[in-house]
Amino acid sequence: MVEEAGPGGGAPRTAAAPPSRGPARPIDEIPAETAQARPTGVDELDRVLGGGLVPGAVVLLAGEPGVGKSTLLLDVAARAARGGRRVLYVTGEESTAQVRLRAGRIRALDPALLLADETDLASVLGHVEQSDPDLLVLDSVQTIASAQVEGSAGGVAQVREVSSALIQAAKSRDMPVVLVGHVTKDGSVAGPRTLEHLVDVVCQFEGDRHSRLRLLRATKNRYGPTDEVGCFDLSESGIVGLPDPSGLFVSQALHAVPGTCLTVTLEGRRPLAVEVQALVAPSAAPNPRRTTSGVDSARLAMVLAVLQRRLGARLADQDVYVSTVGGARVVEPAGDLALALAAIGSREDVALPRGLVALGEVGLAGEIRAVPGIGRRLAEAARLGFRRALVPASSVDDLVPPEGVHVLGATDLAHAVQLVMTAASPAQPAPVA
Fold it and tell me: Could you say which residues bind ATP here (predicted)?
Protein backbone atom coordinates (compact mmCIF):
# COMPACT_ATOMS: atom_id res chain seq x y z
CA MET A 1 0.00 0.00 0.00
CA VAL A 2 1.36 3.42 -1.03
CA GLU A 3 -0.27 6.63 0.13
CA GLU A 4 -0.68 9.27 -2.59
CA ALA A 5 -1.68 12.90 -2.10
CA GLY A 6 -5.00 13.89 -3.63
CA PRO A 7 -5.62 16.90 -5.86
CA GLY A 8 -4.29 20.05 -4.29
CA GLY A 9 -2.43 18.15 -1.58
CA GLY A 10 1.28 17.70 -1.05
CA ALA A 11 4.18 19.95 -2.03
CA PRO A 12 4.15 21.75 -5.38
CA ARG A 13 5.96 19.93 -8.20
CA THR A 14 7.76 23.06 -9.45
CA ALA A 15 9.40 25.40 -6.97
CA ALA A 16 10.25 29.04 -7.55
CA ALA A 17 13.73 29.75 -8.92
CA PRO A 18 15.72 32.95 -9.52
CA PRO A 19 14.97 34.51 -12.94
CA SER A 20 17.44 33.21 -15.51
CA ARG A 21 17.59 36.50 -17.45
CA GLY A 22 17.44 38.99 -14.62
CA PRO A 23 14.49 40.67 -12.90
CA ALA A 24 11.48 42.01 -14.78
CA ARG A 25 11.86 45.58 -16.04
CA PRO A 26 9.43 48.33 -17.06
CA ILE A 27 8.46 47.88 -20.68
CA ASP A 28 9.55 51.38 -21.70
CA GLU A 29 13.11 50.69 -20.47
CA ILE A 30 13.64 47.67 -22.72
CA PRO A 31 15.64 48.61 -25.87
CA ALA A 32 13.86 47.86 -29.13
CA GLU A 33 16.91 48.18 -31.39
CA THR A 34 17.83 44.53 -30.97
CA ALA A 35 14.51 43.48 -32.55
CA GLN A 36 14.94 45.54 -35.72
CA ALA A 37 14.75 43.61 -38.97
CA ARG A 38 17.91 43.36 -41.06
CA PRO A 39 17.50 43.16 -44.86
CA THR A 40 18.46 39.89 -46.52
CA GLY A 41 19.39 41.46 -49.85
CA VAL A 42 16.41 39.80 -51.59
CA ASP A 43 13.79 42.54 -51.90
CA GLU A 44 10.85 40.21 -52.52
CA LEU A 45 11.71 38.14 -49.43
CA ASP A 46 12.12 41.29 -47.34
CA ARG A 47 8.69 42.45 -48.53
CA VAL A 48 7.08 39.27 -47.18
CA LEU A 49 9.07 39.18 -43.92
CA GLY A 50 8.33 42.81 -43.12
CA GLY A 51 11.78 44.27 -43.78
CA GLY A 52 14.14 41.34 -43.28
CA LEU A 53 15.26 38.84 -40.66
CA VAL A 54 14.92 39.81 -37.00
CA PRO A 55 17.75 38.64 -34.67
CA GLY A 56 16.59 35.56 -32.80
CA ALA A 57 13.64 34.95 -35.12
CA VAL A 58 12.84 31.46 -36.39
CA VAL A 59 11.37 31.30 -39.90
CA LEU A 60 9.73 28.17 -41.31
CA LEU A 61 9.72 27.98 -45.12
CA ALA A 62 7.45 25.23 -46.48
CA GLY A 63 6.72 24.16 -50.03
CA GLU A 64 6.30 21.25 -52.39
CA PRO A 65 9.35 19.28 -53.59
CA GLY A 66 11.20 20.99 -56.43
CA VAL A 67 9.53 24.37 -56.00
CA GLY A 68 12.88 26.10 -55.27
CA LYS A 69 13.11 26.38 -51.48
CA SER A 70 16.76 25.28 -51.27
CA THR A 71 17.76 27.48 -54.21
CA LEU A 72 16.17 30.56 -52.64
CA LEU A 73 17.75 29.99 -49.22
CA LEU A 74 21.15 29.26 -50.72
CA ASP A 75 20.96 32.60 -52.52
CA VAL A 76 19.88 34.34 -49.29
CA ALA A 77 22.74 32.69 -47.39
CA ALA A 78 25.29 33.81 -49.99
CA ARG A 79 24.03 37.39 -49.96
CA ALA A 80 24.23 37.47 -46.17
CA ALA A 81 27.79 36.12 -46.33
CA ARG A 82 28.80 38.79 -48.83
CA GLY A 83 27.34 41.38 -46.47
CA GLY A 84 29.86 40.47 -43.77
CA ARG A 85 27.85 37.92 -41.78
CA ARG A 86 28.94 34.40 -40.97
CA VAL A 87 26.36 31.93 -42.26
CA LEU A 88 26.02 28.23 -41.43
CA TYR A 89 24.06 26.16 -43.98
CA VAL A 90 23.22 22.67 -42.71
CA THR A 91 21.79 20.21 -45.20
CA GLY A 92 20.26 16.92 -44.19
CA GLU A 93 18.88 15.92 -47.58
CA GLU A 94 21.91 16.37 -49.84
CA SER A 95 25.66 16.02 -49.60
CA THR A 96 27.91 19.04 -49.38
CA ALA A 97 29.19 18.32 -52.90
CA GLN A 98 25.66 18.50 -54.32
CA VAL A 99 24.99 21.81 -52.58
CA ARG A 100 28.37 23.08 -53.81
CA LEU A 101 27.40 22.32 -57.42
CA ARG A 102 24.12 24.22 -57.05
CA ALA A 103 25.90 27.14 -55.40
CA GLY A 104 28.33 27.33 -58.31
CA ARG A 105 25.48 27.29 -60.82
CA ILE A 106 23.62 30.16 -59.15
CA ARG A 107 26.82 32.07 -58.21
CA ALA A 108 26.34 31.68 -54.47
CA LEU A 109 29.94 31.01 -53.42
CA ASP A 110 31.54 32.96 -50.57
CA PRO A 111 34.17 32.03 -47.95
CA ALA A 112 31.91 33.25 -45.12
CA LEU A 113 29.26 30.68 -46.10
CA LEU A 114 29.93 27.52 -44.10
CA LEU A 115 28.41 24.24 -45.28
CA ALA A 116 27.79 21.01 -43.34
CA ASP A 117 25.73 17.88 -43.95
CA GLU A 118 24.32 16.46 -40.72
CA THR A 119 21.26 14.52 -39.64
CA ASP A 120 21.96 14.42 -35.89
CA LEU A 121 20.68 17.24 -33.70
CA ALA A 122 23.63 17.13 -31.32
CA SER A 123 26.05 17.50 -34.24
CA VAL A 124 24.08 20.45 -35.61
CA LEU A 125 24.22 22.19 -32.22
CA GLY A 126 27.93 21.39 -32.10
CA HIS A 127 28.46 23.16 -35.42
CA VAL A 128 26.58 26.15 -34.04
CA GLU A 129 28.80 26.24 -30.94
CA GLN A 130 31.96 25.90 -33.02
CA SER A 131 31.25 28.38 -35.81
CA ASP A 132 29.05 30.89 -33.88
CA PRO A 133 27.10 31.95 -37.01
CA ASP A 134 25.07 35.12 -37.53
CA LEU A 135 22.52 33.13 -39.57
CA LEU A 136 21.58 29.43 -39.53
CA VAL A 137 19.80 27.71 -42.42
CA LEU A 138 18.59 24.14 -41.84
CA ASP A 139 17.40 22.09 -44.82
CA SER A 140 15.23 20.45 -43.65
CA VAL A 141 13.79 20.12 -40.14
CA GLN A 142 12.19 16.74 -40.97
CA THR A 143 15.58 15.15 -41.71
CA ILE A 144 17.19 15.93 -38.33
CA ALA A 145 16.79 13.55 -35.39
CA SER A 146 17.88 13.48 -31.76
CA ALA A 147 19.39 10.37 -30.18
CA GLN A 148 17.65 11.25 -26.91
CA VAL A 149 14.17 10.86 -28.41
CA GLU A 150 12.61 7.68 -29.71
CA GLY A 151 11.26 7.52 -33.24
CA SER A 152 12.59 8.14 -36.71
CA ALA A 153 13.41 11.52 -38.23
CA GLY A 154 10.33 13.42 -39.28
CA GLY A 155 8.11 11.96 -36.55
CA VAL A 156 6.03 14.09 -34.25
CA ALA A 157 8.33 13.70 -31.24
CA GLN A 158 11.50 14.24 -33.28
CA VAL A 159 10.25 17.36 -35.06
CA ARG A 160 9.09 18.83 -31.74
CA GLU A 161 12.47 18.14 -30.08
CA VAL A 162 14.52 19.47 -33.01
CA SER A 163 12.49 22.65 -33.37
CA SER A 164 12.51 23.33 -29.62
CA ALA A 165 16.30 22.95 -29.41
CA LEU A 166 16.90 25.22 -32.41
CA ILE A 167 14.46 27.85 -31.15
CA GLN A 168 16.23 27.88 -27.79
CA ALA A 169 19.59 28.33 -29.55
CA ALA A 170 18.18 31.13 -31.70
CA LYS A 171 16.75 33.08 -28.75
CA SER A 172 19.82 32.68 -26.54
CA ARG A 173 22.23 33.79 -29.27
CA ASP A 174 20.02 36.36 -31.06
CA MET A 175 20.69 34.28 -34.15
CA PRO A 176 18.04 34.15 -36.91
CA VAL A 177 17.22 30.61 -38.00
CA VAL A 178 15.52 29.57 -41.23
CA LEU A 179 14.02 26.08 -41.29
CA VAL A 180 12.90 24.29 -44.43
CA GLY A 181 9.74 22.24 -43.94
CA HIS A 182 8.07 19.54 -45.98
CA VAL A 183 4.38 19.66 -46.91
CA THR A 184 1.68 17.02 -47.10
CA LYS A 185 -0.56 16.18 -50.06
CA ASP A 186 -2.99 18.98 -49.26
CA GLY A 187 -0.19 21.57 -49.02
CA SER A 188 -0.07 21.97 -45.22
CA VAL A 189 3.18 21.80 -43.25
CA ALA A 190 4.14 18.22 -42.39
CA GLY A 191 4.67 17.26 -38.76
CA PRO A 192 2.95 18.40 -35.58
CA ARG A 193 0.89 21.56 -35.56
CA THR A 194 3.02 22.67 -32.62
CA LEU A 195 5.83 23.48 -35.06
CA GLU A 196 3.86 26.33 -36.61
CA HIS A 197 2.98 27.70 -33.17
CA LEU A 198 6.58 27.65 -31.93
CA VAL A 199 8.22 29.47 -34.83
CA ASP A 200 7.89 33.21 -35.40
CA VAL A 201 7.23 33.25 -39.15
CA VAL A 202 5.60 30.64 -41.40
CA CYS A 203 6.03 31.13 -45.15
CA GLN A 204 4.59 29.12 -48.02
CA PHE A 205 6.53 28.84 -51.29
CA GLU A 206 4.13 28.09 -54.14
CA GLY A 207 4.46 27.52 -57.84
CA ASP A 208 3.43 25.36 -60.76
CA ARG A 209 5.99 22.78 -61.81
CA HIS A 210 5.48 23.79 -65.46
CA SER A 211 5.89 27.51 -64.82
CA ARG A 212 8.88 29.61 -63.77
CA LEU A 213 6.79 31.87 -61.56
CA ARG A 214 7.03 31.31 -57.79
CA LEU A 215 4.98 33.05 -55.10
CA LEU A 216 6.02 33.46 -51.47
CA ARG A 217 3.33 34.11 -48.85
CA ALA A 218 3.50 34.56 -45.06
CA THR A 219 0.70 32.76 -43.24
CA LYS A 220 2.06 33.82 -39.84
CA ASN A 221 4.39 36.71 -39.04
CA ARG A 222 5.09 38.12 -35.58
CA TYR A 223 7.20 40.93 -37.01
CA GLY A 224 5.28 42.08 -40.07
CA PRO A 225 2.19 41.77 -42.26
CA THR A 226 0.69 38.54 -43.54
CA ASP A 227 -0.95 40.01 -46.64
CA GLU A 228 2.18 40.59 -48.71
CA VAL A 229 3.25 38.34 -51.60
CA GLY A 230 6.72 37.99 -53.09
CA CYS A 231 7.17 37.00 -56.74
CA PHE A 232 10.20 35.12 -58.04
CA ASP A 233 11.42 33.80 -61.37
CA LEU A 234 13.08 30.36 -61.10
CA SER A 235 15.44 29.32 -63.90
CA GLU A 236 18.48 27.12 -64.37
CA SER A 237 20.79 29.99 -63.43
CA GLY A 238 19.08 30.69 -60.10
CA ILE A 239 16.13 32.55 -58.68
CA VAL A 240 15.52 36.29 -58.94
CA GLY A 241 12.82 38.56 -57.56
CA LEU A 242 10.16 40.03 -59.83
CA PRO A 243 9.24 43.54 -58.65
CA ASP A 244 6.89 43.92 -61.64
CA PRO A 245 5.37 40.53 -62.52
CA SER A 246 2.19 41.79 -64.21
CA GLY A 247 3.78 41.67 -67.65
CA LEU A 248 4.08 37.89 -67.39
CA PHE A 249 0.31 37.46 -67.20
CA VAL A 250 -0.68 39.55 -70.22
CA SER A 251 -0.35 38.18 -73.75
CA GLN A 252 1.44 40.16 -76.44
CA ALA A 253 -1.14 39.62 -79.21
CA LEU A 254 -0.79 42.17 -82.01
CA HIS A 255 -4.52 42.30 -82.76
CA ALA A 256 -7.71 41.86 -80.80
CA VAL A 257 -8.69 38.21 -80.32
CA PRO A 258 -12.20 37.02 -79.37
CA GLY A 259 -12.44 35.36 -75.97
CA THR A 260 -9.84 37.40 -74.06
CA CYS A 261 -10.38 39.87 -71.24
CA LEU A 262 -8.07 41.40 -68.66
CA THR A 263 -8.71 41.68 -64.94
CA VAL A 264 -6.64 42.72 -61.92
CA THR A 265 -6.42 40.41 -58.93
CA LEU A 266 -5.14 41.22 -55.44
CA GLU A 267 -2.49 38.89 -54.05
CA GLY A 268 -2.48 40.19 -50.49
CA ARG A 269 -2.06 43.92 -51.02
CA ARG A 270 -0.33 43.50 -54.36
CA PRO A 271 -2.34 44.04 -57.58
CA LEU A 272 -1.52 41.71 -60.47
CA ALA A 273 -2.92 42.15 -63.97
CA VAL A 274 -4.08 38.81 -65.40
CA GLU A 275 -5.48 38.01 -68.82
CA VAL A 276 -8.30 35.45 -68.94
CA GLN A 277 -8.75 33.51 -72.18
CA ALA A 278 -11.85 31.49 -73.11
CA LEU A 279 -12.62 29.24 -76.05
CA VAL A 280 -16.21 28.16 -76.74
CA ALA A 281 -16.64 25.52 -79.43
CA PRO A 282 -19.55 23.27 -80.52
CA SER A 283 -19.56 19.84 -78.92
CA ALA A 284 -20.85 16.54 -80.30
CA ALA A 285 -20.59 14.81 -76.93
CA PRO A 286 -23.70 14.41 -74.72
CA ASN A 287 -21.79 16.03 -71.85
CA PRO A 288 -19.79 19.05 -73.08
CA ARG A 289 -16.37 19.59 -71.57
CA ARG A 290 -15.54 22.31 -69.05
CA THR A 291 -11.73 22.57 -68.82
CA THR A 292 -9.93 25.18 -66.72
CA SER A 293 -6.33 26.16 -66.07
CA GLY A 294 -5.65 28.81 -63.44
CA VAL A 295 -9.39 29.40 -62.85
CA ASP A 296 -11.65 27.83 -60.25
CA SER A 297 -13.87 25.29 -62.06
CA ALA A 298 -16.75 25.91 -59.64
CA ARG A 299 -16.81 29.64 -60.40
CA LEU A 300 -16.67 28.91 -64.14
CA ALA A 301 -19.70 26.63 -63.84
CA MET A 302 -21.59 29.33 -61.93
CA VAL A 303 -20.73 32.07 -64.45
CA LEU A 304 -21.76 29.88 -67.40
CA ALA A 305 -25.07 29.09 -65.68
CA VAL A 306 -25.75 32.81 -65.14
CA LEU A 307 -24.90 33.57 -68.78
CA GLN A 308 -27.31 30.93 -70.02
CA ARG A 309 -30.15 31.72 -67.61
CA ARG A 310 -29.99 35.53 -67.47
CA LEU A 311 -28.68 36.38 -70.96
CA GLY A 312 -30.01 33.42 -72.92
CA ALA A 313 -26.52 32.48 -74.17
CA ARG A 314 -26.62 28.95 -75.56
CA LEU A 315 -23.78 27.12 -73.80
CA ALA A 316 -25.31 23.76 -72.84
CA ASP A 317 -24.11 22.15 -76.08
CA GLN A 318 -20.73 23.91 -76.20
CA ASP A 319 -17.28 22.89 -74.98
CA VAL A 320 -15.76 25.66 -72.83
CA TYR A 321 -12.02 25.96 -72.22
CA VAL A 322 -10.74 28.70 -69.92
CA SER A 323 -7.13 29.49 -69.11
CA THR A 324 -4.95 32.29 -67.77
CA VAL A 325 -1.76 33.62 -69.34
CA GLY A 326 1.60 32.89 -67.73
CA GLY A 327 0.43 30.39 -65.12
CA ALA A 328 -1.39 32.96 -62.98
CA ARG A 329 -4.32 31.92 -60.79
CA VAL A 330 -7.64 33.76 -60.56
CA VAL A 331 -9.45 32.46 -57.48
CA GLU A 332 -11.13 35.58 -56.11
CA PRO A 333 -14.64 36.66 -57.18
CA ALA A 334 -13.31 39.90 -58.72
CA GLY A 335 -12.44 37.96 -61.87
CA ASP A 336 -16.01 36.80 -62.53
CA LEU A 337 -16.86 39.67 -64.86
CA ALA A 338 -13.74 39.17 -66.99
CA LEU A 339 -14.49 35.45 -67.13
CA ALA A 340 -18.06 36.09 -68.31
CA LEU A 341 -17.00 38.64 -70.94
CA ALA A 342 -14.29 36.33 -72.28
CA ALA A 343 -16.78 33.46 -72.58
CA ILE A 344 -19.48 35.52 -74.27
CA GLY A 345 -16.93 37.14 -76.60
CA SER A 346 -15.72 33.72 -77.73
CA ARG A 347 -19.30 32.48 -78.07
CA GLU A 348 -20.29 35.41 -80.31
CA ASP A 349 -16.84 35.51 -82.02
CA VAL A 350 -16.46 39.19 -81.13
CA ALA A 351 -13.22 40.72 -79.87
CA LEU A 352 -13.50 43.00 -76.88
CA PRO A 353 -12.06 46.53 -77.18
CA ARG A 354 -8.33 46.71 -76.67
CA GLY A 355 -7.25 48.46 -73.48
CA LEU A 356 -10.27 47.26 -71.47
CA VAL A 357 -10.06 45.86 -67.94
CA ALA A 358 -13.07 44.29 -66.19
CA LEU A 359 -13.54 44.13 -62.42
CA GLY A 360 -16.53 42.76 -60.55
CA GLU A 361 -18.22 39.79 -58.93
CA VAL A 362 -21.16 38.18 -60.71
CA GLY A 363 -24.11 37.14 -58.55
CA LEU A 364 -26.59 34.39 -59.29
CA ALA A 365 -29.22 37.00 -60.18
CA GLY A 366 -26.84 38.46 -62.77
CA GLU A 367 -25.98 41.56 -60.74
CA ILE A 368 -22.44 42.98 -60.67
CA ARG A 369 -21.24 43.26 -57.08
CA ALA A 370 -18.53 45.54 -55.73
CA VAL A 371 -15.07 44.16 -54.93
CA PRO A 372 -12.46 45.54 -52.52
CA GLY A 373 -9.43 47.55 -53.59
CA ILE A 374 -10.79 48.91 -56.89
CA GLY A 375 -8.56 51.98 -56.64
CA ARG A 376 -5.38 49.93 -56.40
CA ARG A 377 -6.54 47.64 -59.19
CA LEU A 378 -7.24 50.54 -61.54
CA ALA A 379 -3.92 52.18 -60.70
CA GLU A 380 -2.11 48.98 -61.76
CA ALA A 381 -4.17 48.79 -64.97
CA ALA A 382 -3.38 52.44 -65.77
CA ARG A 383 0.32 51.82 -65.19
CA LEU A 384 0.22 49.05 -67.79
CA GLY A 385 -1.48 51.30 -70.33
CA PHE A 386 -5.15 50.28 -70.06
CA ARG A 387 -7.50 53.20 -70.59
CA ARG A 388 -10.99 51.71 -70.13
CA ALA A 389 -12.37 50.02 -67.06
CA LEU A 390 -15.67 48.24 -66.53
CA VAL A 391 -16.55 48.20 -62.82
CA PRO A 392 -19.68 47.70 -60.69
CA ALA A 393 -22.02 50.69 -60.87
CA SER A 394 -22.17 50.85 -57.06
CA SER A 395 -18.44 51.69 -56.94
CA VAL A 396 -18.44 54.55 -59.48
CA ASP A 397 -19.73 57.32 -57.20
CA ASP A 398 -16.97 56.99 -54.58
CA LEU A 399 -14.22 56.15 -57.06
CA VAL A 400 -11.46 58.55 -58.10
CA PRO A 401 -10.11 56.94 -61.29
CA PRO A 402 -6.48 57.36 -62.33
CA GLU A 403 -5.70 60.02 -64.89
CA GLY A 404 -6.54 58.94 -68.41
CA VAL A 405 -8.76 55.99 -67.41
CA HIS A 406 -12.40 56.09 -68.53
CA VAL A 407 -14.60 54.17 -66.07
CA LEU A 408 -17.89 52.53 -67.04
CA GLY A 409 -20.35 51.31 -64.41
CA ALA A 410 -22.45 48.20 -65.00
CA THR A 411 -25.43 47.25 -62.86
CA ASP A 412 -25.85 43.70 -64.11
CA LEU A 413 -24.32 41.26 -66.55
CA ALA A 414 -26.66 42.18 -69.41
CA HIS A 415 -25.74 45.87 -68.96
CA ALA A 416 -22.03 45.00 -68.92
CA VAL A 417 -22.29 42.99 -72.15
CA GLN A 418 -24.20 45.83 -73.80
CA LEU A 419 -21.57 48.42 -72.83
CA VAL A 420 -18.74 46.25 -74.08
CA MET A 421 -20.30 44.99 -77.29
CA THR A 422 -21.15 48.49 -78.52
CA ALA A 423 -17.45 49.29 -78.66
CA ALA A 424 -16.36 45.79 -79.70
CA SER A 425 -15.38 44.72 -83.17
CA PRO A 426 -16.11 41.48 -85.04
CA ALA A 427 -13.34 38.96 -85.25
CA GLN A 428 -10.88 39.27 -88.12
CA PRO A 429 -10.90 36.25 -90.44
CA ALA A 430 -7.88 34.04 -90.14
CA PRO A 431 -5.41 34.27 -93.06
CA VAL A 432 -5.59 31.44 -95.55
CA ALA A 433 -2.34 29.59 -96.00
Answer: 63-70
What CA–CA distance (Å, rounded) separates 49 from 218?
7
288 carries a ligand binding annotation: no
Q: How far is CA 357 from CA 52, 55, 352, 390, in A?
A: 35, 44, 10, 6
Q: Is 118 annotated as a binding residue?
A: no
Q: Would the annotation count 375 as a binding residue? A: no
Q: Tell me: is residue 68 an annotated ligand-binding position.
A: yes
**Residue 23 known to bind ligand:** no
Q: If you write DSSP's letter for every residue of 379-396 in order, what string do you get?
A: HHHHHTT--EEEEEGGGT
What is the pTM (predicted TM-score) of this model? 0.80
Residue 142 DSSP symbol: G
Q: Give residue-wise pLDDT tens across range 262-299.
A: 999 998 888 999 999 999 999 988 899 999 999 999 99
323 annotated to a ligand binding site:
no
Alpha-carbon 109 to chain mean position: 28
Distance CA 195, CA 199 (A): 6
* Count of C-beta atoms within a 10 Å radius of residue 370: 17
Q: Which domains are present in the chain?
A: 37-243 (3.40.50.300), 248-425 (3.30.230.10)
